[in-house]
Design goal:
By secondary structure, the protein is an alpha/beta fold. 33% of the residues lie in helices and 21% in strands. A hairpin with a 5-residue loop joins β8 and β9.
């Protein structure tokens, strides 16, 4: 007891001294100084200190320092686009705009000008980006113009999200920036909604209820609030482009790439002479015939060497995680697969494990074959980790940085990687689709697409469109600064219309070909889809239940005289995930949702209206 009194007395003196020197302190600050909570409460009981509760806002942008910049000077096309959007805001007219501009055409400056009109008119806005990776760069650009900016995305703590939500609802912020869930932000007097990179499939929540698309929610919200909504992209969803062609959206075009130049008055002046990066397509079949079995073609190898010698930065893109796509026994051919999912395991050197990309379970890399006992185990296929290893071997003096899902699990990992590359702490940035998300990296002069065919031949009607979008977007990362850019696309199918159109920057030609194909096949935007998916632990039950639902829906279709086509059932693209067997049905027609609107599905079925993928 005496020892306790002595310790309390020492802590009490330390607490009083700290408060005398520094004023009010929080309990965590007292604990850091060696004063426990019990001592603080004892000091309160003898009227030496007063303990009070005070609401402290947890603001995720508290340490996000920016320098205010004056508005940029706009080119005529930018002025026209911003003027059209501003007119709708000022008239309180619900109107949807498709802002279609080549990569680097200054879409963000149009957003900023429209936001300025919105805020000066006493209204508020929501700005959405498709990936959390884009949020820091977007925040920086927008906070250079606006003080009252909130942020909403999955990287916030629960406390930060609560405080931001409360502040938004209280009208404390003019602009909310976030990912797709930001569309539900309780902004009072909403005047403008912006979806940047509107083509991105991540705007659809497809893996949990409610299955919504932020684009659809934004349109409904704009209608109810008499607000303008802007969908911006260099590669719009062909469905959006078709709607704009029919007049459902107002089409605004920015056909020229803009290179910003600092003016004498501190403002930023646009310059239109910036050319799009030159794109070269390398046929990998020719490389093989010439005896080159390496990952980099002679053209790409030489281009990387030239860029490094000029102290320029390089992006190498491959849309596949891991080091090797699968592992195979060279004697019996056995390929290790996940015990819970019907997929081969991918080897990740970062973890030194085989990983299932469906359920994320890990296994050690076997030293002998499970089937025949052979030690001749081979890693097959190429992932982004293998690109990193090969780049380190071929260019040993280059500083490398990798950007994919496996290295961005930390809270600020995206921001740290981007900041490091922008500070030129690395010469070559190697990554997956995160690199094609509208990032601005002025020192990048070369983009190399290691294999453009990844994802091109998947059994999904959108695979060609996604390949075109990825190639065009990642190509747009080159040449955004003072130096001209170059892009090298490696492929085994250079004749494919998606790759050919991307290499020519021919979005309209691609969209025409894609829309013709979909019109003939009966796919969106010329029909709507509903995907019904069943998952069950018993494979026989899953198949039989899928057949039962198909028969019931076909009967209902006949009874109501619907023109909706019932396709299937069939096993899903990945037929088993987490131990559950998956079957699917596809409803296709003008209003397929009507067929299931009053239809009671058995348990374990999921309904996805307007799915973004059939895989």
């Amino acid at each position: 007891e005496a020892r306790t009194r002595t310790r309390r007395s020492a802590q009490a003196h330390a607490a009083v001294a700290l408060l005398d020197d520094h004023g009010d302190r929080t309990l965590p600050e007292l604990r850091a100084a060696g004063v426990d909570t019990q001592t603080a409460r004892w000091l309160e009981s003898i009227d030496v200190v007063t303990l009070t509760e005070r609401a402290v806002e947890r603001h995720p942008l508290e340490h996000f320092a920016v320098t205010r910049r004056p508005p940029a000077y706009l080119l005529p096309a930018q002025e026209a686009a911003a003027g059209a959007i501003s007119s709708a805001i000022e008239a309180r007219r619900a109107e949807a705009f498709l802002l279609y501009g080549v990569t680097g055409s200054g879409k963000t400056e149009v957003y900023l000008e429209a936001l300025d009109v919105c805020v000066r008119g006493g209204r508020r806005a929501i700005v959405m980006v498709p990936e959390i990776a884009l949020t820091p760069q977007t925040i920086r650009r927008f906070r250079e113009r606006f003080d009252r900016v909130a942020v909403l995305h999955s990287g916030l703590t629960d406390g930060e999200r609560f405080d931001q939500w409360h502040g938004i609802a209280s009208g404390e912020y003019d602009v909310v920036i976030g990912s797709r869930s930001a569309v539900f932000a309780p902004q009072p007097d909403l005047g403008l909604i912006i979806l940047d990179e509107e083509h991105e499939w991540t705007y659809k929540q497809h893996d949990a209820q409610p299955r919504y698309h932020a684009r659809d929610v934004a349109l409904e919200l704009a209608s109810r609030k008499s607000a303008a909504v802007v969908f911006g992209s260099a590669t719009p969803d062909v469905g959006s482009f078709e709607l704009a062609s029919r007049g459902a959206y107002t089409l605004l075009e920015l056909p020229e790439r803009v290179r910003p130049v600092a003016g004498a008055d501190g403002g930023v002046r646009p310059e239109t002479s910036a050319a799009m990066p030159e794109i070269a397509v390398v046929d990998l079949r020719d490389e093989l015939r010439a005896g080159n079995t390496g990952m980099f073609s002679a053209t790409l190898n030489e281009a990387i060497r030239r860029a490094l010698a000029a102290e320029e930065q390089v992006i190498l893109f491959l849309n596949r995680r891991g080091l090797a796509g699968h592992v195979q026994c060279r004697d019996c051919g056995h390929v290790p697969a996940c015990s819970s999912c019907a997929v081969a395991l991918t080897y990740h050197r970062q973890y030194d494990r085989l990983v299932c990309h469906q359920c994320n379970r890990h296994w050690r890399l076997p030293t002998t074959c499970k089937q025949c006992g052979s030690p001749r185990i081979r890693l097959l296929g190429v992932g982004v980790e293998k690109v990193e290893a090969e780049a380190a071997r071929v260019f040993p003096h280059a500083r490398l940085l990798r950007w994919d899902r496996d290295v961005t699990r930390g809270r600020h990992a995206h921001e740290q990687i981007l900041a490091s590359f922008l500070a030129h702490d690395a010469d070559i940035l190697i990554g997956t689709q995160m690199l094609a998300k509208g990032l601005d990296m002025p020192s990048v002069t070369l983009v190399g697409v290691v294999n453009a065919d990844v994802g091109l031949h998947l059994p999904d009607f959108r695979s060609g469109e996604r390949t075109f979008q990825l190639l065009t977007q990642v190509a747009g990362r080159a040449g955004r600064g003072e130096r001209h850019g170059r892009v090298i696309i490696q492929t085994y199918t250079p004749e494919h219309y998606a790759i050919d159109a991307a290499a020519r920057y021919d979005y309209e030609g691609f969209a025409a070909a894609e829309l013709d194909a979909r019109r003939w096949a009966g796919y969106p935007p010329f029909a709507r889809l509903v995907r019904l998916t069943l998952a069950h632990a018993n494979p026989r039950f899953a198949r039989e239940d899928a057949m039962r639902v198909q028969r019931a829906l076909s009967q209902r279709r006949a009874e109501i005289g619907s023109d909706v086509e019932v396709v299937g059932p069939s096993p899903a693209y990945v037929p088993r995930v987490r131990g559950r067997w998956r079957w699917q049905l596809l409803l296709r027609g003008r209003d397929p949702a009507a067929l299931v609107r009053d239809f009671v599905l058995p348990p374990n079925w999921v309904v996805d209206v307007d799915p973004v993928s059939l895989l």
